[in-house]
Structures are given as structure tokens and as C-alpha cells.
Amino acid sequence: xxxxxxxxxxxxxxxxxxxxxxxxxxxxxxxxxxxxxxxxxxxxxxxxxxxxxxxxxxxxxxxxxxxxxxxxxxxxxxxxxxxxxxxxxxxxxxxxxxxxxxxxxxxxxxxxxxxxxxxxxxxxxxxxxxxxxxxxxxxxxxxxxxxxxxxxxxxxxxxxxxxxxxxxxxxxxxxxxxxxxxxxxxxxxxxxxxxxxxxxxxxxxxxxxxxxxxxxxxxxxxxxxxxxxxxxxxxxxxxxxxxxxxxxxxxxxxxxxxxxxxxxxxxxxxxxxxxxxxxxxxxxxxxxxxxxxxxxxxxxxxxxxxxxxxxxxxxxxxxxxxxxxxxxxxxxxxxxxxxxxxxxxxxxxxxxxxxxxxxxxxxxxxxxxxxxxxxxxxxxxxxxxxxxxxxxxxxxxxxxxxxxxxxxxxxxxxxxxxxxxxxxxxxxxxxxxxxxxxxxxxxxxxxxxxxxxxxxxxxxxxxxxxxxxxxxxxxxxxxxxxxxxxxxxxxxxxxxxxxxxxxxxxxxxxxxxxxxxxxxxxxxxxxxxxxxxxxxxxxxxxxxxxxxxxxxxxxxxxxxxxxxxxxxxxxxxxxxxxxxxxxxxxxxxxxxxxxxxxxxxxxxxxxxxxxxxxxxxxxxxxxxxxxxxxxxxxxxxxxxxxxxxxxxxxxxxxxxxxxxxxxxxxxxxxxxxxxxxxxxxxxxxxxxxxxxxxxxxxxxxxxxxxxxxxxxxxxxxxxxxxxxxxxxxxxxxxxxxxxxxxxxxxxxxxxxxxxxxxxxxxxxxxxxxxxxxxxxxxxxxxxxxxxxxxxxxxxxxxxxxxxxxxxxxxxxxxxxxxxxxxxxxxxxxxxxxxxxxxxxxxxxxxxxxxxxxxxxxxxxxxxxxxxxxxxxxxxxxxxxxxxxxxxxxxxxxxxxxxxxxxxxxxxxxxxxxxxxxxxxxxxxxxxxxxxxxxxxxxxxxxxxxxxxxxxx
Amino acid sequence: xxxxxxxxxxxxxxxxxxxxxxxxxxxxxxxxxxxxxxxxxxxxxxxxxxxxxxxxxxxxxxxxxxxxxxxxxxxxxxxxxxxxxxxxxxxxxxxxxxxxxxxxxxxxxxxxxxxx
Lengths: 952, 116
Fold this sequence. Notes:
The complex is a heterodimer.
Chain A: H1 3-13, H2 15-20, H3 25-51, E1 56-63, E2 68-74, H4 76-99, H5 106-125, H6 129-147, H7 154-185, H8 190-193, H9 197-202, H10 206-220, H11 229-232, H12 238-244, H13 249-259, H14 261-264, H15 268-290, H16 295-316, H17 319-350, H18 361-364, H19 366-380, H20 386-399, H21 409-432, H22 450-468, H23 470-486, H24 503-520, H25 522-531, H26 537-559, H27 564-585, H28 600-618, H29 623-643, H30 647-670, H31 681-706, H32 716-727, H33 732-740, H34 742-767, H35 771-776, H36 791-814, H37 822-840, H38 842-847, H39 853-873, E3 883-886, E4 894-897, H40 898-925
Antiparallel strand pairs in A: 1-2, 3-4
Helix pairs in contact in A: 1-3, 1-5, 3-4, 3-5, 4-5, 4-12, 4-17, 4-22, 4-23, 5-6, 6-7, 7-10, 10-13, 12-17, 13-16, 15-16, 15-21, 16-17, 16-21, 17-19, 17-20, 17-22, 17-23, 19-21, 19-22, 20-21, 20-22, 20-24, 21-24, 22-23, 27-31, 28-29, 29-30, 30-37, 30-40, 32-33, 33-34, 34-39, 34-40, 36-37, ...
Chain B: H1 2-20, H2 25-45, H3 67-98
């Protein structure tokens, strides 16, 4: 199966459970399971090739210019992780079906889980580090949804937010690190980067890249000092904890360290940062875990500790360390997932996870007892279970590792870690299952149905099988994966239980005996632990976040205190200062373009424009007058466009001017007609100074630009040269809009449509409130014309409508070769219809309007999109246009172009958007009670009541 | 001619900004409209001014003005209509709900508490 399909399956499949929940919980879970199983089979089909040392690849170039490509590859490491993610995912899906209660929205759960699973699979199969980062961020986001799944629990929400904050911050560091790494290597292709060890490690930026990448890994894998988010994430439902914290999310950091091992490992920096962090995390997590009374908290800190162990092993930078790390990743995933699920079962059956309220479950829940005990013993490192094997390998490696010339530092600390690890594992068995049966369980415990214990049971079988026959079950796998980690073929000893009497065996023995002693002393130790003051990670985190929030709020409130005028002034002054800085420090070239002669016509236009603009400011308190004046400004601008060789712009500006003024007039109808004089002389002086400075700046800048030639060759030559050849049109502006930069235009019409729908939504919302009643009872503040629908206006607009629509059609069709096109035609058509609203009234026009404007906008966008997609069927990129000429008999030669179809989409979107905006606004004015009886809908053959008048 | 054009843009900008700094919604909308004219003319002028050379291909004509800024400004004009419409709508709705068209909060020194 193609790697694309494997990576895409969980994402595509996430739709099914969300939909199939309507068909019941079993259908929902089965859909999620089937998708996962299919992807798992896809991985396993490729497994033989990978086990034989091959690499499966799949590549599509996405943005090759940026080095960002959809390249996937699966070597031993990728296959190993993909199998873990999908395999344990499948078990979790089965388990969750029985764990979740009827109140929990199961469709959502499985959809989130599959999204998360897809993101994880994406990480481990990516052959492009930018793609990897994308998937990495997706895991942060989807895990946020999963951890906060129980939205009603404050702890769940806080835990989710903390996890997102910590892993998200790490993700940012990782992006930086990956960019630095890619920059050093000169490529973002992972497999190419992995070949460049010397180049990367000799680079002066190596340490920067290393630290940034490790920050990403450590936050994700909950390494000290970022370990605190993981226990708080335990507020999630247990299947989520079991999945995220055994096999997936927290292993992503380990995966990345293993993945980049060939180029990052082997230096002192790597050894000291990674192994020390791992060791500290391992010991710290194990110690805290012993004193946690919540089953899941115990397991959470134990996970932190084991992640530390694996990090430590990867940090050693040796082949045996890598082998042990890979082996322990496998072992930890099996026993920890089983333990989480067991904890979930206990919680589910007894309704408590508090160890102090449990005990004696041995006889009440025998199946769970067996499963949990075997898994715990494996976690404690007791032979012959798999946890023992990898822990022995770890201790063996540590026993001959020196740290800063100290031979004892690592072995002693590692033994302490192992000792506490054994102690909390024993406590899990001893304080939950052993001891006397109690009679005060919150709920009478008994074993759950087979659906809930089958998944952990399967995992425990693996624990035993790997423990007893390591070489047969996992030998080849672990070695293939280690080869992939190291990037070279290694020489290994077979995996086996008995290595003879070695230092590791002594350390193991000390750990087990010490663990038993610690358990016996647990009660007094616990008292001491509780009495000891410790820094609480959550308090520190909350304090940091709180301080940051206060600082941000302080800055925001200082700049933006609710006075928009003040904020705008600050903004403008800031821009002016920036511009002033650029002007005083930069250099301006000499004037290279001769200026045009001043002619009479534009000089008159200039005078009109400046006078009208100044008058607007002078008379802006009289709102109606200023609207009239702004119309003058618009008309002069239109003429300027026309004069300076921009007929398309002139047409557009003219038609936009009409609708804008209509819109503003409509709005002004409801608003005060004058603006009071409010601002003080000081404030007005300040504003005049600011605006004059801004005007001088902008005017000076454009003057400097206009009197100088282009600094670079413009691409306009290309447009002019190819407009006819490539786009089939003579009007270069229109060809740019619908062809060269069609994608921009596509975005523009969507924006326009969104703006119109926003207006519609605002109207809807406002009309639901008391405003509606107020509007209905409103007494106009100006005298109303005696005739709402003047005869002349109604008759003329109705006669004009077909003519105006004809003009719109004409403008539309000629647009490709002469000034015109979809934008202008759309505006003209909209004006033709607005005239009817104005002359005959809203009610009359609305009754004759059969297509909802939303639909017209939508169909416009769709027509444009479908036209664009059509290019795909020709094997061309989105929006590539095609054109040709036909010669109908008896007629002139006629050009057809797909660009015209695209322009039709533009036309429809513009018509719909303009009319929806104006129609929404008019609804404020529409008063159904005083609907005019004579909107000049006079049919000479009918009387006032619509009856046919008989002539005879 | 360039001087006239530039000074017109300067005047439009200055008046637009002055009106934006007023305290009622209507002058602010007027100011934004003026500023839109200024910005559109500014963008248009980056293609340099030329008279009688519209970018419509014709036989025998060799020089055309720069079509690209025109295409960008064309969409900008339409989009600025959309923007104006949205702002007019927000201003009008705010006025109708609150019976007040001032743009500043009642007590600017005490911003609203964020409950999130």
C-alpha cells in the first residue's frame, strides 16, 4: 500500500466515526477500528521489504521552490513506530468502545483519535523535515482536543491548555531548529540530511540547531524541566492517556532524537545535554511516582521516568545504547499501555483511582489482577519479563559510562532510579490488589466484560513472549530498527535473558531488594514526603503564564484603552516615525523620469478634487453635504483614472461610487444628520499636525516614486507580450484579472462574498433585538416626501432596467478585449436592480426577486472554482485558461475563452455581494405595516384590487 | 503633472486621517473613504503616469501604460466598497442598539474586563 494512503487513511477515516455515530456506538467504533486496521495492514504489507533492509518511498513535489515536499519514506524506524502507533491504536479503539459511557460523544472521540493517529503516522513516515514539523504541530493540536475531551472538567481543560502551551512552545523551537538544520545541510529532505554528519557537526550553527531541536523533543517527551504537563494531561479519559503516553505523543520526541541520531549524536554536547536530562528525568519521575496516590498519576510519573531512561540511552551515543533504547521503546509501549488500561478498568469498576481507598482486589477482579501484575512486574524489571531485558541492557551500558571523569555518578543514579521504579511498581500491585478485601469501595468491584480486558491481555501476552523468547519474537525487528537509527549496519549480540553475573545484575538485584524495602517503609516515607515543601510545577507554570498575561494586557491596555481615536493616532504617529527614520537614514536616487506637462483639464480636476476634499473636512458636521462632496471627489478620481490611461478603473470607480453613495445615504437615514463639535482646540491642532505630516509623507513618497524609473524590470512587459498570445485577450487589465492573476481574483470575490454575508449576519442579529421594535415605531427626523414612489422615477427606472442590464451584458462580453469585464458588469447590473428598490420600494422589489443573494454569491464562487478546476482535466494547473475561435456561418469570427466563464463567476459574486449588502441595510427601513399600496405597479387592465376591469 | 497628482494624494490622505481621528462614526467612515481614494490613487501611480496609452492592445501601438497596478487597483476598489459597507453596517447597528454614535468607550481609562 502506498505510503500516501497509509498517512492519509486516518485523516480521511476521521470522518466516518463522526458520521456513523448516528448508526450506533458499535458502528462508530468499528469504523474507527477498520480504518486503523487497514492502515496497519498497509504498513505490514511493506514490512518484509523493510525488514530486508529496503526503504519504501512515496514522493510528490508540493512546493519544491521552498524545499517543502510531500515526501514519505519508511525504513526500519518508521515502520516500527507506525506499527506501534497503529497497533496500539487499534487496541485502544476496542478498549474505548467499552470504556466510554453513553453520555460521552463517541463520534467526536474517535474522530479526534484518528486525527491524532494520522498526525503521528505522518511524523514517523515524513521524509521532509518541514512536513514533519507540520505533522508535529498537528499532534499538539489534536492531543489538545483529546486531553480536553471531557470539556465539563476544569482539570481536563487546564491540562489540555498546559499540554498545548508546553508542546506548542517546544514546537516553535523545533521549527527554528529544523530550519537551521535544513539551512546547514542545504536541503529539507530528511534522507539527504542524514548523510551529512560531518558538514552538520562542523557547522558553527550545530549547537543552535541541536538545542532548538532538543527543546522540541524534550517538551514533547516530557523531559525535565518540561515534565509537568504530562501528569496534568491525565485528566483525559483513560484510553487517551493509554494511547498518548505509552506509544505515541510522548514517544514523538524520542522518535525525533532517534531519527536525527546519525547527524546530531556523537558529540559531547549531545551526550551531556541528552543523557543528563534523561538521567535527571528518570530519577525524578521515579521518586515522585512512588508518592502518588492516584493510579494514573503514578503511571504518569512512571512514564516520565521511563521516557527519561530512553532519552538517557539515546544520549549515550553508542550502538548498544541505541539498541537498548529501541528495545525499551517497544517494551515500555506494551507494558505501559496495558497498565493504563488496567488503571482505567479499576477506575471504571470501583469508581476510584485513589490507591489509599483500594486494596484486596486480587480475589474480586482476578483477570485484571493477573494482567496488571504481570505488566507491573515487567515495569519493575523482574525476569523473565521484557522490562527486565531492556533494563538490564540499560544498566549494563550505564555501568561503564563515565560522566565528567566520574565512574560512579551514572551507575549510582541509574540504580537509584531503577530502585524507585521497582518500588512504585510493587506498590501498584501491593496496595491495589494485595492486602485484605475492604468493604468501603465506592462501588462493588468485579471484572469487566471481555471487551475491556482483551486489549491489555493481548499486550501482556506480548510482554511475556518477548521476555521469554526475545530473540525469536523481537530480535530481528530491534536490530533492523537500530540499524535505521544509526544509519549503518551494526554488529549485535542476540537478545537473551541470561548474560552471566555482570555488574548490571548486581545493580538489578539492589534495585529489586531496595524496592521491596522502600515499599515496606512506604507509610513513614509518605508522611515525610507530604511534610516536605517542594516547588510545585503547576504553580510555577501558572505564575509564569499569569505574569506573561499581565504583561501583555498591560501593553495592550496602554496602547488601546478603548478610545479608538487615540489608538489610531498612536498608530499613525508610529508609522510616521518609521517613515521619518527611513527617510533620514536611507538614500534617494536622482530624479530620472521627466515630468509630464501640466494641462488645463487635469488642472481643473485637481482643483475640484482638492477643493471638494478640503470642503468635506470643513463641512463634515453637515453629514448630507459631506456625502454630496464625497461624490464629487469620487467623480474627479474617476476622471483622473480615465485621463491617465486607465479606462477600466474609471468604469469601476464610477459604478462603485454609485453604490457607495446609495449605501451611505441609506445609513444616514437612520443616523443623526449632523456631527456635534466635541473636540477641544488642542486636540484639533494635534490632529491637524498629525494629518498634515501624514499627507506630506504620502504625497512626497509617491512624488519620489513617480519621478523615478523602475528600480527593477517590471513583469508588466510579460503581461503585455503574452496577453493576446497566452490569454487570448487585448484588454491586458482584464486578462491579468481573469488569467495571469486569476487566483488573486478568486480570493477577492470570496472576500467580497464574506463581507456581504457578514453584513447580512449583523442585520439578522440586530433585527432579533429590541432594535426592530424601535425601528418600526420610528418617527422620521426629516420630513418625508409626499409621494414615496414618484411616478416619473418608477416609470423611468423600469424602462431603464432592461437597458441597464443590456449595458451590463455588453460590458461583460467585451471585457476581454475592451474596457469592461465581470467586476464592472456586475456593478452595473447591481445598480439596475438597486434602482428598482429605490423607486418601487423594498417590498415590491423583494416580492419579485426569486433568487436569494447568498445563492448568487455562492454560485459565482462555484462557477469560478469549477472553471479553475477544469484546467486539471487538461493536465494544467488550477485556473489555467484555454481559448479558441469559432466562425459561425454568416457571422463574424467569435472568440470563446474559459476566462469568460471565470469572469461570469466574478460577475455573479459581485452582483450577489453588492445586492446582499444593500438589501440587508434596506431591511432596517422596510416597515411591512406601512407598505405602500401603490408602488406604481399599475396594470391598466386591472383595478386596485387586482380584478380585471371589463371594458364593456 | 506629477506634482499635482502627488499633492492631490497628499491632500486626500491628510483630510482622510483628520476625519478618522474624529469621535463619531460618520466622519470616521468619510475619512476611511477618502483614505481609500488616496491609497487607490497611490497604488495606481506606482505604475507611473502616462496619458493616452491605455493597456488595450492595438495594431501598430507599441507603448502602453503599466497594466499590473491597474488590475490590482480594480479589485482594490471593489474590495474597499465591501469594507466600507461592513463598517457602515457596524456603525449603523451600533448606533441603533446603543443610540450613540461615539467611537470611544464611555470610560476609556477603565477598559472592559476580560473574563476569559
